[in-house]
Design brief:
single chain; 281 residues; alpha/beta; UDP-N-acetylmuramoyl-L-alanine:D-glutamate ligase; nine-stranded mixed sheet; binds 3-hydroxy-5-(hydroxymethyl)-2-methylisonicotinaldehyde
């Protein structure tokens, strides 16, 4: 049991197994109260569906935050994902100042890009603003593409060497984040994983699993939700980051057989029993 209250700030994609529909069940599985601040409501996510609807909720956020503050509602962890525009980045900075408890954690997944490209609606201007938010972060969780857009390092699709990954880690840490978790790290064709960098100690921790030969949408959100859940129950960043790899890989394995019919997301629900077992070990 824990008494932590986590606030996650990201969109509601009504269908699509990403953002809040992923974060809520996963964080709840850790036994942590999960409050939400939706940044937008979309009919689906934006990666592959045509004609999706999007209602931006930027204008609603200040009144919600004022109400919470007047009710003295504070959060031990604030975890952000898909934000809709630069104004929302500024609002998140304000929320962290006002509503995060003194020893609380601020976790940022700078959702904006993958596979060398920005998602629809995102650009370098947004990335530059997001880079500024990183100075406030305790933990930042970019994928390789996001790391490149945040730091100005040239994007490489594959064939990473340690030098390349460690340059990214160093430049991400220089933005000001206290710990960096870089996803999508691979030094061989059959392994994929993460690197955790603590600039205070200089330690780099790598964790890999066998690569699954399919690109599932939404695995970044599954990963970051699990990592944030782990932090909410007091795991170290390295522990939470490796459990999140195990859980995400389990979800991908359990989704593999129907990857064609179920093309838009990963069926992480099937791996929740695995996660609960791992948490309670
Ligand atoms: O999985 C990240 C994500 C979250 N929310 C929306 C998205 C995406 C990625 O495409 O479109 C709306």
């Amino acid at each position: 049991m824990n008494n932590n209250r986590l606030l996650t700030i990201q969109d509601i994609s009504c269908v699509g197994q990403c953002s809040l529909t992923v974060a809520l069940p996963i964080i709840s599985a850790f036994g942590t109260e999960c409050a939400i601040l939706p940044t937008a409501v979309l009919s689906t996510h934006t990666a592959g569906f045509k004609g999706y609807t999007l209602r931006d909720l930027t204008e609603d956020i200040p009144a919600i935050v004022n109400h919470w503050e007047s009710e003295k509602i504070y959060f031990n962890i604030i975890y952000t994902g898909y934000l809709c525009g630069k104004k929302q980045i500024e609002l998140v900075g304000d929320i962290v100042n006002r509503l995060k408890t003194k020893n609380g954690l601020f976790v940022v997944d700078p959702v904006m890009a993958d596979n060398g490209k920005f998602y629809p609606g995102f650009d370098q201007d947004f990335a530059n603003e997001m880079a500024k938010l990183c100075s406030k972060d305790d933990v930042i969780i970019p994928n390789i593409t996001e790391a490149c857009f945040l730091t100005g390092v040239e994007y490489k699709e594959s064939g990473y060497q340690k030098d390349y990954v460690e340059e990214l880690l160093e430049k991400l840490a220089a933005l000001g984040a206290k710990q960096v978790v870089l996803t999508g790290v691979s030094f061989s064709s059959d392994k994929l994983g993460i690197a955790v960098y603590n600039p205070q100690t200089g330690d780099i921790f790598y964790y890999f699993k066998n690569k699954i030969p399919h690109n599932f949408h939404g695995t970044g959100d599954v990963y970051s939700s699990s990592l944030s859940g782990g932090l909410s129950i007091g795991m170290s960043v390295e522990q939470a980051a490796s459990l999140a790899v195990d859980f995400t890989v389990e979800a991908m394995n359990l989704s593999y057989d129907d990857r064609k019919e179920h093309w838009y997301g990963v069926s992480f629900e099937r791996a929740l029993p695995y996660l609960c077992n791992a948490i309670n070990k």
